[in-house]
Amino acid sequence: MAPLYGALRKLRSRNILQFPCISCCRSLASVTKSHKTPPLLYHANKKISHLIRIGRLSEARALFDSMNQRNTVTWNSMMSGYVHRREIAKARQLFDEMPQRDIVSWNLIISGYFSCRGSRYIEEGRKLFDEMQERDCVSWNTVISGYAKNGRMKEALKLFDAMPEPNVVSSNALITGFLLNGDVDSAVESFRRIPVRDSASFNALISGLVRNGELNVAAKILHECGEGDDGKDDLVAAYNTLIAGYGQKGMVEEARCLFDEIPDYQGEDGNKSERRFRRNVVSWNSMMMCYVKTGDIVSARELFDRMTERDTCTWNTMISGYVQVSDMEEASKLFIEMPSPDALSWNSIISGYSQNGDLGLAKDFFLRMPNKNLISWNSVIAGYEKNEDYNGAIELFSQMQLEGERPDRHTLSSVLSVCAGLVDLYLGKQIHQFITKIVLPDMPINNSLITMYSRCGAIADACIVFNEMKLYKDVITWNAMIGGYAFHGLGSEALELFKVMQRLKIHPTYITFISVLNACAHAGLVEEGRRQFSSMIKDYGIKPRIEHFASLVDILARQGQLQEALDVIKSMPFKPDKAVWGALLGGCRVHNKVEFAQLAAEALIRLEPESSAPYVLLYNMYANLGQWDDAERVRVLMEKNNVKKQTGYSWVDS
DNA sequence: GTAGGGTTAG
């Protein structure tokens, strides 16, 4: 008896056998039945399911239509193709047309309805379930998991209690459902109530806990897993999930501890050990990803080199690691070396070159890529936008639509930034219209809209978007609006909004303070500016960047406090850049402080010898003061340095 | 042919 019991346990843990239930007997019956199927029909059925598996649905349908003999399996296979594609109407049509239905037909159509979004479909699925004459445990599991996946736990639990024989699959579905709703306690309780847990029980619980940020609970459960768990010898997937979860939070050390806990058995001659709980390729990939996420490319590479078995994901992770640290040479080396690059590999390389400013290579790879997808288009469009080749971005955007690729929120967000860069309000409004037609504007999209409108001079439209966001705002939203006000010289509005933000206890970022300081400059508030500058450091622990110093210099210089501004420049821990000297020079012009102007202009000329602006400014100042000798000296210097005066241009589109 | 779950790109 004992060996038989052991064999049963082994089968169970491999998901071949579960709780005793009708479906097992039924599936055995259908196996024997398939032997009676005429060979031609049997092969045609196999062909249909193969075509569906590789995603060639229309070919499968053509074959289905051409068959002069079909059995229930034929109809069911065809139906499953539509169910997978969420084409529920077509699946339903087959269901209604088929001459004979078995339990699988019913289960299929019900699962189809439950995997469609919208309560309409769920009700229809439920109606069919209620109409069933005979149900097996798959029917129950389908409906329970259907409710759970849609977050409707009340109905799921009711059915769970009503089912004739509870089984581990439905319990697992409940766990997933609870965690989808963030109900950690109920999930853990359901888990504890399962008499014999399998590996999917652990996976469902651990992955849900990780998604809810409950890493400590997950680790505890994983370590206390006990006797009576069929899944306990196959916990590697759950370990992998938690490793990845730690990686997401940057907790590399915890991840490494877990990784080291998984045995790395390799039998003699490098053969894989019989033991099932051992590191697999996903464990290595996940651990590598942790290092990649924290920018520790050396440790990631170390693991990569130690791996005896690599899959596409391994290569892609390593490539994306090099992309992140801008080592495109190594990234493309791996890309060439890897056995069969997939869409993800191509896209990593494309976005890598895009982000690192090599648009030519990005487009080269993009054009050579065999099956471009939405992400490929988005990567290359974002690259053009980031590198300020706005017209190139727009060209790609229209090209993409000509080729039948539908833009999504990522595309549209990039295109909005393009409109902002081009200062093209007309185009921006068109894109806004387009957006409302095809996606629900979410936070990132709304944020891009605010930036676009304010950069294009339509501050009122920016306000409308901002106010429509009501409760759903993040720091970026606030930064965009405050920055918009500051950009338009509406200093007091910007400061007022900043106060509201502080009252709501939203933590500002360094970007917020760039806008706040700019607002102070525009509003002529010297004391307020100094106060905000030190509040940034003291109250919020934000280290001032050179942009903040530039703003502070701007604030002081505009008010004619040029000596104070110069003191700031001398005391700051950065080498003053164009913006800093530019701010000083701007103040000098307004207040006719020629001695400071000379200092600032000379510094600017050293930084950018080809720019005519500082020469012109200095020349005009001397001229205004009647110091014609000095003015002439500037003009000669300009000629000597071969600088041409550029014709002015306005950057505001009418 | 139907039910529960792990890693990578914009």
Automatic annotation (TrEMBL):
Q: Does the keyword Repeat apply?
A: yes
GO BP terms: RNA modification; system development
Q: Which Pfam families match?
A: E_motif, PPR, PPR_2
Which Gene Ontology terms cover its molecular function? RNA binding
Keywords on record: Repeat
**Sequence ranges of the PPR repeats:** 71-105, 136-170, 235-265, 280-314, 342-372, 373-407, 474-508, 509-544
Q: Which domain of life is it from?
A: Eukaryota
Record has Repeat as a keyword = yes
Family per record? Belongs to the PPR family. PCMP-E subfamily.
NCBIfam families assigned: PPR
Descriptive protein name:
Pentatricopeptide repeat-containing protein
Q: What is the lineage of its organism?
A: Eukaryota, Viridiplantae, Streptophyta, Embryophyta, Tracheophyta
